[in-house]
Amino acid sequence: MEEQEKDCSFATIVLAPFLLATSIMKVTVEISLYPLHEQYESSVLAFIEKLRRHPEVVVETNGLSTQIFGEYDFVMKELLPLHIQEVFKKEKAVVVLKIGQGHLRYEE
Predict the structure, then answer these.
(1) Which Gene3D superfamilies does this UniProt record tie to the protein (predicted)?
(2) Which residue of 2, 3, 40, 86 sits 20 to 30 Å from the alpha carbon of 63, by its own alpha carbon?
(3) pTM for the whole structure
(4) What is the pLDDT of residue 63?
(5) DSSP code of residue 91
């Protein structure tokens, strides 16, 4: 009996536990992109600019990471898989994600 080929996509491995949500839920994602080459700054800035083109989310940056605030389904099922896959297709990079339920902002 042949062993079935397993799906090893980003959504299957990393996001599978989160893909079970069915209701509209707000999410905060902290994302850091680490391109593995000397021209890393231009890659990071281009990545952030692409995220900002989506009116469905709010994107905030600081010196260490980028925060994305939006609806769970859009952020986790459409936005991140699209843009992370795009990065991985064109360059070697590491992406670090932290995901929290709700819009986790500290207003002063």
Answers:
(1) 3.30.70.930
(2) 86
(3) 0.76
(4) 86
(5) S
